[in-house]
Design brief:
317 residues, alpha+beta, six-stranded antiparallel sheet
Length: 317
């Protein structure tokens, strides 16, 4: 009997413990279900149960304008580039020149403030005069030494006083055209050479050199023929009346440095057609021309009388 009671008690205890465990399991399962149902869903892209920022090798979205961006510690910031390294072409900023400004440089001249100003072979009054200038005549400026300007006259280095009583420097702004400047440079060397009516030309108008040509004697058309040939290889004809039909017409308002200007004169004023043409000059700018007439080759302003004689302009280079 005692053995039966012990067996029954053991069986009852086992059933009770099993029931208690089952109830505990049900309670735990119910609690877990409630917790899952009440929690927030995973964010989009949160595969694997990781928030975006915690996923391995996650790619962070770009920072939009206005969004705060994490500031790097100063040690991580790159040093500012020096100005000459900020240009894509590695050209130093100071060396970058506007092309239009580069073209608009200009030329410097010595302008006489009085008539009869001597041009000398050396920097002093004891040197031989090579010729003289009238008021407002100009020579190219090549430097200064001991109170004398250095220039070019009659194909050689020459000097004029740099005293403000006699001369001044004159700046002529213009676009730089290398071909035109070469032509004009040839003209600078011939300033001061005497005017000789009907002087023998450099060539016959077709490029054949003339043996009797004298490089120290010019009239207006032979001077233009010479400087255009050696400055730009342009072959001009032998007289003003044949040169005036070369190149292309240029309106007075469109005159540019290097253009040829054609004029009549007192003896041809009443003629017609090309027979009216009696003089030619090279336009420099600022109402100045380089030409030779009556005395010697010179740079001088166009007088009102010469403007009254103006007929035509041509561009041949």
């Amino acid at each position: 009997m005692k053995k039966f009671i012990l067996t029954f008690a053991s069986l009852f205890l086992a059933v009770a413990m099993t029931a208690s465990g089952f109830l505990a399991y049900l309670a735990a399962a119910q609690a877990l279900k409630h917790r899952v149902e009440s929690s927030d869903p995973l964010p989009d892209g949160g595969a694997g149960g990781y928030p975006d920022s915690e996923q391995p090798d996650a790619v962070l979205p770009p920072v939009l304008p206005g969004d705060p961006e994490e500031e790097l510690p100063p040690a991580d910031l790159p040093d500012a580039l020096p100005p000459d390294e900020e240009e894509d072409d590695n050209t130093p900023a100071d060396d970058i020149v506007d092309e239009d400004e580069e073209k608009k440089r200009g030329s410097q001249y010595i302008r006489a403030k009085t008539s009869g100003l001597n041009v000398r072979s050396g920097p002093g009054t004891n040197y031989t005069p090579l010729g003289s200038l009238d008021k407002n005549d100009m020579l190219v400026y090549k430097g200064k030494t001991d109170g004398w300007y250095i220039t070019e006259f009659r194909s050689k280095t020459a000097y004029v006083s740099a005293s403000s009583s006699y001369t001044e420097l004159y700046e002529m702004e213009h676009e730089i055209d290398e071909t035109i400047e070469k032509i004009i440079t040839e003209g600078y060397a011939l300033l001061g050479h005497p005017y000789v009516y009907g002087a023998v030309r450099l060539h016959d108008g077709r490029g054949n050199f003339l043996k009797s040509f004298d490089a120290s004697k010019y009239d207006c058309s032979s001077l233009m023929q010479y400087i255009y040939y050696y400055g730009a290889g342009v072959i001009l004809d032998v007289t003003t009346r044949t040169q005036v039909v070369q190149g292309k017409h240029v309106a007075k308002k469109d005159l540019k440095r290097g253009d040829l200007m054609f004029f009549t004169n007192s003896t041809r004023y009443n003629k017609t057609g090309v027979e009216r043409i009696g003089h030619v000059a090279l336009y420099l700018g600022d109402n100045y021309i380089l030409h030779t007439a009556t005395d010697h080759a010179v740079i001088e302003p166009i007088s009102s009388q010469r403007w009254n004689y103006y007929i035509e302009s041509r561009r041949v280079a």
